[in-house]
Specification:
The protein is of the alpha/beta class. The chain has a single domain (3-234), classed as NAD(P)-binding Rossmann-like Domain (Rossmann fold, 3-Layer(aba) Sandwich), CATH 3.40.50.720. Helices cover 35% and strands 18% of the residues. It contains nine helices and eight strands. Strands 3-2-1-4-5-6-7-8 form an eight-stranded mixed beta sheet, with helices on both faces. Helix 4 packs parallel to helix 5 (83-94) and helix 4 (40-50) packs across helix 9 (192-211). The protein is globular, with a radius of gyration of 18 Å. It starts with a helix and ends in a 16-residue tail after the last strand. Bound molecules: zinc ion. Zinc ion is lined by residues 169-170, 172-173, 238, 241, 243-244. The site of zinc ion (ZN) has 8 residues, from helix 8.
Amino acid sequence: MNKEELILYSRHIMLPEIDMEGQIMLLNSKVAIIGLGGLGSPCSIYLAASGIGSLSLIDDDLIELSNLQRQIIYSLDDIGKKKSSVAKKRLNTLNQNIKYINHDERISSKNIDKLLQDSDFIVDCSDNFETRKLINKYCSVNKKNLIAGSCIGWKGQILNFNLSSEKSACYECFFESVDGEDLSCRETSILSPLAGVIGSYLSIEIIKSILGLSSKEEFLLQIDSQENKFKKTKVLKNPLCKICSNTKKS
Ligand SMILES: [Zn+2]
């Protein structure tokens, strides 16, 4: 770390749980953010400012006027431009000491290996079940920790899976246990600053995951911003899960 970086990250380094060693861990880490919308915007800003060494920014959408209500990384001048390239440019004005890789692609079974292979930690800010399940399967098979967020209206949720461990539950275990209930941000009502809260929380969980400070148990954190309610629930591993459980037949 050079002198400028020591000053830049000094408030992190002063935290006993981070210190120099932890900041170096952050600088050596590689994180992929899938979806650069309401959650991906604040999440990418905080991860860049925190000094995550390499950020992969994945989104194939163009910026629209209706995005600006919550996707705070973009401005009026950006309408019609590609989210991934504008995000990269904006983040580079915030922190030039880290590497940004932008992918103007929609993640699919065909390109997921290529898009995520260089990242050790994955943030799922996508907006549909199909993509969530695809990312979950990839992370489970490749043993990469996964943090996922979603929100609708006044409510949001964060899911944390320590998929680098064999013992971890996964999104599929969760999805089965709640009978398909989940929240998706696309084309639904959403309170602007709630996206900021959930997206910021995702960045906290990624930092903790990198530093080895995450909860040892997989969990769902539900936030109801209208009622000021926070609820944390353990996500149990389904021993019959077709994604994360070893169901070898003897
Ligand atoms: Zn599972």
